[in-house]
Amino acid sequence: NLVGDQGGETSAPRSLKREALPAELSIILPSFNEAENIPILIGLLDKALAGTAWEAIVVDDNSPDGTTEIARKLALSDPRVRVIRRIGRRGLSGACIEGILASSAPYVAVMDADLQHDETLLPKMLAEIRTGDIDLMVASRKVEGGTVGEGLSKVRAWGSNIANGLAQKLLNVTLSDPMSGFFMVRREKAEELAPKLSPQGFKILLDLVSSAAGTLKIKELPFTFRERQHGESKLDTLVTLDYFGLLLAKYFGDIVSVRFLMFGLVGASGLVVHLAALRVFLLSDMSFNMSQTAASFVAMTSNFFLNNQLTYRDRRLRGLGALIGLLTFYAVCSVGVLANVGVANLIYADPAYWWFAGAAGAIMGAVWNYAASSALTWRK
Ligand code: GDD
Ligand code: MN
């Protein structure tokens, strides 16, 4: 009896090896440059999960260190190892989502592939979730008994506290460690929520919990974040910015997307760049019209590069593609100016409400720039 057997501690029929059973638990291992860590981790999982029908799904974003090849080699001798190789895409959250969607097991765990997460917690998490009373088990570094141990530097620990505090205040998330990348969830639930999740950044758990809007039964479990032995962390300033972007977007009830928000912030920075450049050109004795035009190009160029780094990180243009992108971005923004002035002109009736017409024009221009540049410059 295949189904009855996989949950319990009893061993599989002799004729059917444990590995041949359908997995009850899929462990999603997002990886970028973890070639040294993956084989060790699979060995540790094998030990920690003896008696459980599990599989590991390595979701690798085409790591230059050959993580995919290493994982595939393991898969040839161990059918519990599966590999998804993504090309042209980056993002921890997106990798986790794809891994979850590739699973058919009733339960999925998400875990770092770099040995910083304690795999011996998996059986405890599974036992809790199997009872049917819990939808999501979170391994937390902040709950009584858990610790960031040696895993986080002072600065990181401090930043992580601020990020948690904000998430708890802004989103009413009661998790003690909403940034944790170690959790187990009923696949059905995750699958339901998947269309709402953002693929960028590191915030999959927070995204999952806030998208569920209180419908998940959650339990936390303390754990100690281990120090990284091989390779390095990919959590950088951009990942942090992206996290704050998600907080703001969720706070405003998903009316505006994270992308549009980021685009707006970049646009606002463009205004500062524009004014600074205008000042410099004017000082160099250029006519006002020439200076204003030149300053516009400086601001558009700066906006293009910032959007390419931040807003469209996942569709980043490089080399010749970036040059063509820059030219289409100039074209899009020029039309944006026309849309801006046109709308302002249409609305402008009473000099007392000059600001209303001005703002309407600016918003129209921003919406146009956003829609057109996402369709033309950073098209999928
Ligand atoms: N596929 C894929 N694509 N995997 C990625 C990417 C990516 O773009 N970026 C990171 N990963 C993988 C890493 O290879 C590792 O297995 C895991 O995701 C965690 O990444 P690290 O770069 O090691 O993150 P960290 O240790 O600095 O951050 C940890 O703490 C954060 C909160 O402080 C992680 O547990 C995060 O999940 C957590 O949010
Ligand atoms: Mn790590």
Output the keywords.
alpha/beta; 13 helices; 7-stranded mixed beta sheet; binds manganese (II) ion; elongated; binds guanosine-5'-diphosphate-alpha-D-mannose; 52% helix; disordered N terminus; 380 residues
User: How are the strands ordered across the major sheet?
Assistant: 3-2-1-4-6-5-7
Largest sheet: 7 strands, mixed
The percentage of residues in β strands lies in: 5-15%
The number of helices is 13
What class, by secondary structure content? alpha/beta
Mean pLDDT across residues: 87
The general outline is elongated
Subcellular location: Membrane
GO molecular function: dolichyl-phosphate beta-D-mannosyltransferase activity
Family: Belongs to the glycosyltransferase 2 family.
EC number: 2.4.1.83
Care to describe what's here?
This protein has 380 residues and is an alpha/beta fold. Helices cover 52% and strands 10% of the residues. The protein has 13 helices and 7 strands. The chain has helices at residues 2-7, 37-48, 67-77, 92-101, 122-130, 154-171, 187-193, 204-212, 237-251, 258-283, 288-311, 319-347, 354-375; strands at residues 25-31, 54-60, 81-85, 107-110, 136-140, 183-186, 218-222. The protein has a 7-stranded mixed sheet. Helix 2 (37-48) links the parallel strand 1 and strand 2 (54-60). Helix 10 (258-283) runs antiparallel to helix 11 (288-311). The chain is elongated. Mean pLDDT is 87; it is low at 1-16.
